[in-house]
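Example record

One chain of 232 residues, shown exactly as stored in the release files.
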Amino acid sequence: MLTLAIDTATKVCSVALCRDGELLAEYNIHMGMTHSEGLLPQLEQLLKRTNTKKQDIDLIAVSMGPGSFTGLRIGLATAEAMAYSWQCLLHGVDTLKALAHNIPLEGFVLSPVLDAQKGNYYQALYQWQEGKLVELAGTEVVNKERLLERIAEFGTPALILGECKKLEKLELPNGVKLAPKTLLMPKASSVAFIAEQEFDSEADKKIFGLEPYYIRRSEAEELWEQRQQKQQ
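Predicted structure tokens for this chain:
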């Protein structure tokens, strides 16, 4: 199976091409153009450099969130359009699960986090068990204190990874560490590998049925509700 993957859930724009669990090519860009400007040229370059034709793609995998609302919409809309045009399958992957997949290390509690604004984080907990990535606790929006409490519920050693720069000055409990910066960047290759494992030939035919995992409402929606309450 030849899989093209997209991850635009964060400031990083990542695209990858994989075949049956083997990475063929991957581009990760963390600066410069916005996703709306850079994603399509990045995809075109990936296909060109690997001499891949659009009709060769079997599956398109896309990171579904949580993450940047705008980034998620751009990634999903692009993936849907390509899957429809190229007549291939489409599969959505949890962004936090893809982050945890970057560190295939057994014996550790993995805590992928993404910035949820206003001092909060999207957090889930995973662990590799016998070669499989197992979810210990689902995604929640938490503050720093609750983030550490959830980790403590499953013991140590534990690694925090993802958008955790704001946690660098936080005093961490013994056995809890921030993952090396080289492992923090979201990677579309992990999105591809998970999609190939979760692939369902029937369910993934439904190109336009996917919804991003927003978890919380956008800031615009919250402001609108506040204005409505003041007017009442």
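Notes: The radius of gyration is 18 Å.
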